[in-house]
Amino acid sequence: MSHAVVIGSGPAGLMAAQIMAQAGLRVTVCEAKPSVGRKFLMAGKSGLNLTKSEEAQAFHAAFSEATPWLSPMLDAFGPAQVQVWAQGLEQEIFTGTTGRVFPKAMKASPLLRAWLARLEGLGVVFHTRWRWTGWADGMLRFDTPAGAQTLAAQATVLALGGASWQRLGSDGAWAPLLAQAGVVLCPFVPANAGLAVMWSPFMEKHLGHALKNIQLRAGAHVSRGEAVVSRRGLEGGGVYAVSRGVREGAALRIDLMPDQTVQAVAQKLRKPQGKATQSNHLRKALKLDPIKIALLQEMAMPLPKDADALAAVIKALPITHAGLRPLDEAISTAGGVSQEAVDAALMLRAVPGTYAVGEMLDWEAPTGGYLITGCLATGAWAGGQIAARLNL
């Protein structure tokens, strides 16, 4: 029986293991951490968004320039297949109003437990605290609690993640090993990242509050989502969706009243202010909540007195910031194994028999179900390709 080794136990690695084990291969999964799926579990803490139910063209477009490359994989294991897979693990799912698909339990732990039980039933063997350190005499080498260990494999799947959330296992430490083997890599950069903002003491009482019903724009990237004012800056889905534009040097502007035209906002501002303070006038005339008024004052004081000028600022408030939060804090990363470094089966051209899947490949997508689906799709693709090759 052919033996395949998967290194890394995130969704991409586990899906590759499942596909290969179902095809009759003997599969071993090696994980450097004491337990499997740590980042997957973290992703489910605020609700495990498995995928997004939408038309294929729109779904593929979320992967931007990686779309032509990933499209066959997303066609083979896209939103519909992800939902069937989750239901096959006896996880009831539901689709929200925006098309995002979640398990009814919301958390990742019930799904992961069911998945691991399935894999163990298929004969998949798990080794934890096994850190991959490269190759030795054609074999995979690992540092383990029992000392150095080696494994022979007819095929290897690298599912080692990107370079964010090091404490969960995605530390990017594999990059030098692949570079030494001649694999072409792209530098890691943060994706779906928060924004670093040095708030004045004035904002202290607003920390932890959410800016709702806003539109964010950074270059070509536009988002109609929320932003949370945190001690470290601005975070949340709305910010993550435009973080690539910020990373590429575009200015960030926030529309505090996206459902109103600038002319309509100006017209409301022309209502008599009387003895009211400017803050109270903004609250009464525009129904702006305190957090929006605070952000407006933080970023644009002194505010214009002219209604048209003030309306223009409200509709495109420039955000002064110190760039994206550090790489390790990003939800995901771009960079890693370049598209040119793998063939159509996701096998490394420089290391025949070794495949790369998931976030360690150079692609990025927004949050909202795209990331997990992309990882599952690449894992399923490589697993299927290996099974077809070894079962010839």
**Helix proportion of residues, in percent?**
25-40%
Instruction: Report strand %.
Output: 15-25%
Contiguous uncertain segments of 5+ residues: none
Instruction: Estimate the mean pLDDT confidence.
Output: 96
Task: Give the tally of β-strands.
Answer: 21
For the largest beta sheet, what order do the strands appear in spatially?
Answer: 6-2-1-10-21
Major beta sheet summary: 5 strands, parallel
Global shape: elongated
Describe the structure.
α1 runs parallel beside α6 (109-121). The protein is 34% helix and 22% strand. The relative contact order is 0.19. The mean pLDDT is 96. It is of the alpha+beta class and 392 residues long. The two termini are 12 Å apart.
Outline the secondary-structure elements.
Elements: E1 3-7, H1 11-22, E2 26-31, H2 38-43, E3 51-52, H3 56-61, H4 67-76, H5 79-88, E4 93-95, E5 100-103, H6 109-121, E6 125-128, E7 131-136, E8 139-144, E9 147-151, E10 155-158, H7 175-180, E11 185-191, E12 195-196, E13 210-211, E14 215-218, E15 221-223, E16 227-230, E17 233-235, H8 237-247, E18 252-255, H9 262-269, H10 278-286, H11 290-300, H12 307-315, E19 317-318, E20 332-337, E21 354-356, H13 370-390
